[in-house]
Amino acid sequence: MSPAVSSPPRTALVTGASSGIGAAVAAALVERGYRVFGTSRDPGAVTAPVPGVEYLALDLTDYASVEACAEAAGEVDVLVNNAGESQNGPIEELPMDAVERVFRLNVFGAVRLTQLVLPGMRSRGYGRVVMVGSMLASFPLAYRSSYVASKAAVKGFADAARRELSPFGVGVTTVEPGSINTGISERRTQYVGEGSPFREEYRTMVDTLNANEAKGIPAERVAATVVGAIEAKRPRPLYAVGSNAPVVFALRRLLPRAVMLRIVARKHGLR
Ligand SMILES: NC(=O)c1ccc[n+]([C@@H]2O[C@H](COP(=O)([O-])OP(=O)(O)OC[C@H]3O[C@@H](n4cnc5c(N)ncnc54)[C@H](OP(=O)(O)O)[C@@H]3O)[C@@H](O)[C@H]2O)c1
Fold first, then answer.
1. Is the confidence at residue 11, as pLDDT, over 80?
2. Does the residue 17 lie in any domain?
């Protein structure tokens, strides 16, 4: 790719830039000449800060923190809503406060931050908003219901808002990663009781999920897709990367939904 042509440089805000996909996106944008703000709940504790990234504090579960972060970033041309929690557990056993937290983080915080940067993008006649979703929103998986639903929700916001904002030069898009080797397996939140009737199946699913993540593609591949979406003249509504995305999305168009759901379950060791 040729360097980004922008003078003065465009400004990007990448949430969850302390590790994984967010750090890779922030690094790729710095390399492309953007001024990049990256966020962490605790910027002082980021172990491998990305060179050139200016870190801001952000806790997406707290609207006051979201507002302070938007204020600190100022005029933003590109927003990458990447931060997220990978929550797991049988639907029956998910504590409602955990379900609310994952929606606050993965959905409501991202939506609020988007609301705060949109007026500036509209008035300047240019903007890009990328929601980092998950292929699981397109291929739902057992024991991931709250996470799947949160990622489907952000895609819904993005798909619907697209038409509202395109007349103002603001492109809204969703990037759905498949299995990406970021170490997220160690950070999953899990809710399954000791004596749970689902425990054995749950373990099988999570072991397969973690093995897939360990064999997944590097975060830099997702970053390249995100940058491609940002710099496209007309960003597509949906990009997917990893887990053989082109093949599985083609199958999804051909097969009945029930068959596709069964295949996804089997791929994760569930009969
Ligand atoms: N890895 C995969 O296989 C995969 C697949 C599909 C989708 N995704 C999605 O891709 C995104 C990034 O995942 P990743 O694998 O790179 O995970 P990760 O390395 O665990 O990164 C998650 C980021 O979210 C931030 N974060 C956590 N809680 C937060 C909160 N309350 N407020 C604000 N930020 C918070 C973390 O920052 P601090 O801890 O510094 O605050 C961290 O930078 C997530 O949305 C995830 O769902 C990942």
1. yes
2. yes
